[in-house]
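Exercise 7.
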Amino acid sequence: VYPDVFGESIGSELANAMDIARGGQFSNVPDNYPDVAWFTYDDHSCDYGCMVTEYLYWALTSILGAQENRLEEIRQEWQLNTRDLVQNRDPGVFAILTNATYRLPENLPDGSYQN
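Solution. The predicted structure, written as tokens, is:
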């Protein structure tokens, strides 16, 4: 759905935002990310498309509040652990993931659901 936006390949809106978050467009995991990067996932078995998916996960779960108290655990991969940090430092992904057109989750699952 919406491959121009969420596609796992170079040139999708999400991939373009990820390239900014990584400090450049890297087909493979670089040995060292630039100092300006806030998404620094370094699993060498994860190709570009996999990186896009990881980026989506970190950004969305941070927007929803799942990473608020986990910065020390996750900072080696992701530094924007709150909604405000994503909104202020990564406005591109924030705009994509909060756009009502795409009907993405707005609340974390809590296990309490209505029938």
